[in-house]
Amino acid sequence: MIFKLSLDRGRFVALVLVTVFALAVMWAFNTRKTPDLGQSATEGVSVTSLAAPVVVETLKAGPRTITDTYAGMIRPFERYLMAFEIGGRVRELGQNDAGEPLDEGDLVQKGQVLAVLDQRILEARVQETVAVLEQAQEELERAKQLRNRANRVISETEFRQRITDVAIAEAQAETANKNLEDATLRSPCNGRISRRFINAGESINMHAPAFEIVEVDRVLLVVGVPESRITRIENRWKRRQSIIASEDQSPDTTVQLMGKDLFGKSQATKSGEIYRISETADDKTGLFEVEILLDNPADDKTNTALRPGQIALAEIIVDELAGYELPLESVLFRDGKPAFFTVTPYESNLGYMFWDLGDATDFRAIHVPFSEYVEQGSNIVIQQDHFEKQMLLQKLMNLIDDQLDGTLDDMNRGELEANVSTLFDKHKEPEVIREHTLTVLAEQLNAPLREEVESSINDLFSKPVQGRVVTAGQHRLINDRRVRIVAEN
Asked: CA triplet 87, 89, 92: central angle to 5 degrees?
């Protein structure tokens, strides 16, 4: 009995030891820690610190369109205040498509009759002038015949008077016909009646307003642009004007009405082109007016999508550049300075207590500050040269820190980083930067340290810059912290 209890107790102890060992191994694999800057990458790694879970996205450089957004009001392309050239009584108004008298809001076509004056007196005057002209022409013809027979039958004065009578009669006939034409008022364009000032049966004086017509098959969205942005918009607009239309059909602007439909959905966007930029700023607002031309055809000959007075947003293209686009949530602003984190792999030896668990690939976060960027809605666009320079610069400085095993103090490190950053600003070719970087290291490092980092630097410059950026989980990161990639896009 005693022997049996001892055997059971021994099995229990063995089971406990196996369980502890298994938990220790699992703990070791899940708690690898990136060594500090002062710790060599080949030393055993402590397992007392958890890796930060992050999501990584690989960004690619490409053409980026930079836009500015402004709100403005839609105005008609042109306004026409229509009036009769003569006075009279309004006999009738023109008719719309439904056969009803024209009223405010009706669409009209170019040349369509708007209103007609009483023409009875005018028609009689035309007939009178025609008769007078015919008589004057007959008298002139008779005078020519008499003159050809004998010079003394009709005097030169009488002959010239007949010529004058014909000229006067022709002028009177032309005036009468013109007055008859002016008794009919026609639309000068395709547009909409915004105001009607007359009714049938009323009398109207010459040049008194009868209708106001607004041209709405084309409309203008007028926005105010501040002084700091107007030059950039104008420069691109002038460049586009110098390009043949067949070579560049892309729109200048995308426009969207502020209002929503019955179900809360935004209105469809429309493409537009900058039509005119004001030379002077508005006296009240201090902004420069930019007019954006929009096509606005009627959908069923009665309605148009855009109406004067509506408020709309315009996204105006101000520039196009090569760059990287980062989600805004991947950028941290510390002391007003923006930065993002990238990740870099390296080999480390993982150990726990007296067990060697073998080599493992760690990832660690590298803090990358930047300055040349443009905010675009929920994203940030960084110029390609600046992005790749900052990525390479920070990876280079972290590589030097690792290779020098923390022997470079903060003052010397800052001086070295400033010198290398200056090289990046002066030179564009990676090979030239690499050679100058080694020259700077030769001046600031002793021979053994310089030789130690030279091969690693050569390897770094031989690889293309990869835009692997941390897009989630970065709020817990610090430079050189070990991370665990849980997702990569």
From this structure: 120
